[in-house]
Amino acid sequence: MRGKQLQKLVRRKGDQTMKLAEDLSLTGSAQAPEKWVVAAELCHTLQYQQMAELLGQAQLTSEQLGNTSLAQMLAMTRSMCLVYSQPQANRVELPWLNAGATPFIFLPEPVVVGPNSAELVIYCLGTFRVYQNGQLVTNWPSLKAQSILKYLSAQRGGAVVRDILMDTLWPEADADAARRNLHQAVYSLRQILKQSQPCLQPIQFEQDSYLLNPALKVWIDWVEFEKYAQAGQRLEAQGRLAEAMAAFRHAEALYRGDFLEDDLYEDWASLTREHARVTYLNLADRLSEHCLRYGEIEAAISLSQRILARDNCHEQAHCRLMRCYSLQGLRSLAVRQYQLCAQTLKAELDMLPSPATQVLYQKIIGQEVLNLDTN
User: Structural domain boundaries of the chain?
Assistant: First the structure.
């Protein structure tokens, strides 16, 4: 967002507010925690709800203009205003502000594409897609040829015993017919994939097993997803929280849909699909929890909504949305979220919300002041 456009939004708020807007518009980066100290001090002297509304308008405008960095900073400042609008006795300090550190949530938005050096890019999360040297493969010779590549991708490109492919893809055929069908499908698949490297055999046959040629530069989204998810878990166990959340953020961005979501009736894909789905829900929940704890309410809402799109019975996501809406002063939305939670749990699982969820609901309808604590 340009400085003049932002200034129009805050002109009536006085010189101090103008100075904050100019500082934010000129900074353009999250690497200046002293700006947030200024913002916090300024919030003490302004009318917080009006300032939050103003910053929300500025955030929307900056998003429309494509300035993601400024939009994120404005969102954080808006969250701070909402926190500091609480009575002094009930106010919850932002832990990252007290520590003088920049929160992890301002990590750059990851660009989810296959590496430029990859000759073969395979997307298994969501709709199955394959790119060769940047070009989408559309001329599949057969569904069986495509299924072979899917199966190899599910094994991270590693070796798959020939008999397993035969039994999986041609379960009703006798051994000789299944072997002929497999040979023909592999041959046609090789012809398609040779466009990446004409001089390289893309699918090798070694020790009675098929595998993607290790010399072929292959990028598979679900393999990258697993890598970042595991790295995040390892880093979190080591207490390296910011790095863990960065890894989780990359994994979350890679998850564009369930594993081979168009192959729901393929039994061989179901275990990998469920594993990837559970992994995603866990890391998205951790991200959402930390976003809320660090005052990034909009990000916590967005992540919780994405969790519920995958699992509408995820009670923690319902509770987090209730808390976020309440912190934003949207009590009616918080109440509706509880009602949706209760209805969904009853319809899907024949269960009631947990006691903790019911206590949170009672606090909301009693108009108690909530804090950023996610427990």
Answer: 3-102, 120-216, 220-311, 318-375
